[in-house]
Amino acid sequence: MEKFIHDVIIIGGGPGGIQLALTYKELCREQGKEPNMVILEASHEVGHSFSKFPVHGNLISNNKLYSGKSYKSRYAERFDWNSLVTKDKDILMRNYSKDFYPRRESVVQMLGDLVCKYELPVQYSTKWIGTKKNEDDLFEVETTKGVFLGRIVVVATGLKPSKPKIKGIEMVTMYEDMKPKEYYRDKRVMIIGKGNSGSESALDILNEANVIMLASPTPAKLAYQTHYVGNLRAVNSIIAENYQLKHQAALLDCKIENIEKVESGFEVTVAYVHAKGEVETLFFNEIIAATGFEANVELLIHDFDINIIHNKFPSITGVFESTEVKNLYFAGAQTHGLDYKSTSTSGFIHGFRYNSKILAHHIAEKLGMVEREANSVEGCVVDLILDELNNSGELWLQPALVGLLLRKKNDEWNNLGHRTSYEFKEMKVKEGESLVFVTLEYGDIHEFHDVLNIPRVPGDAAESVHIHPVIHVKIEEDIKENHLEEHLESRFDKDKYAPFLEGIINQIEGASAISK
C-alpha cells in the first residue's frame, strides 16, 4: 500500500470527475498552491462511456453555436450543453463538432484534450475494486494498481444500464448489445422501455423492422411537456408519431409478466394497464431491453451500505456528500438524486458540471484552500443580481436547484458563491444576518393540459409559468419567496426589474438595522 496521502481521490474520469478536477485545480492555483489529488480511471481513456453510449452514436444534448453573444461568454454556456467550464474556455464542444446534436466520440476527444492541456493527474487502466476507512479515518481505495490513501473520496463512476426484474429477461438483447439494424429487417420487434434509449433504438430500426412495439408500465412523457430533460426528447419521439398514425408501431402501457422462447422468436405475456387488467400473449421475433440507467455504485453498497434513492442514485446532502459516510462525495450523474424528474438537469453534463464546480469550491474550502466567507460584494448588489439573472449558466440550467447565495452582515454584503437550494435551506442564520438566495425557476407546468397553450397573467409574477427570477430571503428561520415576472426572452432589464430588487434589498437592510 502506498504511504502517500492524497487530499482528494476522484474515482472516474468522466465529465463529472474531470469538471471537479478542473475547477479544483483552478482554485488551488489561484492561491498559489498545487492540488494534491488523483483521478482513477478504469479505462485507457477519459470519458470512456461515451465510446459506447448512446449506442447509436448521436447525443441529445444541444450544441448551439450562436447565441448573439461571444461563445466564451457566461450567457453562451446556457446553450452549450456539452462543454466543461474553465476560466479560459479554450476547449469547447464547438471545436469538435458543428452539429446541433454531436456524435458521442466528440466528448471523448474533448475530455482527453482537457486532461492534456490542464495536466490533470489521471491514473489510467486503474480499476476500482473496493473502499474502506482505516483507523486514521482515511480512505483506502483498493484498485488493480494498488491501494490509494485519501482524506476525501469523490465517486464519479457514472451510470450503468439497468436490467428490469422480468421473468425471462435473461434471453433478450440488452440495449448495449443491440445488433446492427439490418439484423432486424422485416421482423416483429418489442423494445422494453419508452425512454430515450428505447425510442432511440426504435428510430434506428424504424425502416428495417416490420412491427415495432415499445412497452413499459407507464406512459411516455415528452420533455417539452414536463420541462424534465430526461423525459422523451422530441428528436427521439418519431416512434410515438408512427404509433398515432398507425404505421406498424405501438406504445404499450403494460406490465410484462413473462417472456418465453419459442421456435422463431418469443411469446410475451403482458397485462395492460388501461384495459382493466386484460392479459394477452404477443409474438415477436426479437426483443430489446432499453430500460434506462442507474448509478454505478454497487461497490459502495457492499463496502458502506449506502442508501439508494429513486432505486437509482446514492442518497446525498446538499453539498453532494453521502448521507452515511463522512468525506465521501459524489459527482456527475450520480448527483441526480437531488433533482430527479424535476426541471433541473443534474443527470446530464449541462447540469452536473455546475454541481462539480460547487463541490470543488466546497472541498477547497473544507481543506483550507479558499475562504468564500471573505468575498465582499463590490459595487451595487442589485447590479450583481441582475447580471446573474441575465447571464448565469448555473441558474439557467439548474433552475430551483442552484442559486447565487448572498449574505447581509452588519453593513456589508458578501458573495458566498453558487450553492444548492438544499444547502441554503439548511444554513443557520446568525443574529443580525440575512441570507439571499437568487434562482431562476419554472412555475407549475403540470396544471395545464396543453403546455403549448398556457394563458399568461401580465403583471402577476406569482403566476409566471415560464422560467423567471425568484429571490429567497432567509431571516432567522423564515424563508420568504419573492417572484419576479417572466419575460419571453428572459431579459431582465434594469429599468423594469431593478425597482423590485431594490425594494427587496431595502427591506432586508431595514430589518438588519432594526435587529442591531
Q: Level of helix content?
A: 10-25%
What share of the residues does DSSP label as strand, in percent?
A: 25-35%
Name the shape in a single word. Answer: globular
Please, what is the CATH homologous superfamily of the largest domain? FAD/NAD(P)-binding domain
Instruction: Give the biggest beta sheet.
Output: 7 strands, mixed
Structure description:
With 516 residues, the chain is of the alpha/beta class. The protein has twelve helices and 23 strands. The protein has three domains: 5-161 and 293-367, FAD/NAD(P)-binding domain (3-Layer(bba) Sandwich), CATH 3.50.50; 169-289, FAD/NAD(P)-binding domain, CATH 3.50.50; 381-514, no CATH class. Helix content is 24%, strand content 26%. A hairpin with a 2-residue loop joins strand 5 (139-143) and strand 6. Helix 1 packs across helix 8 and helix 9 crosses helix 12 (494-515).
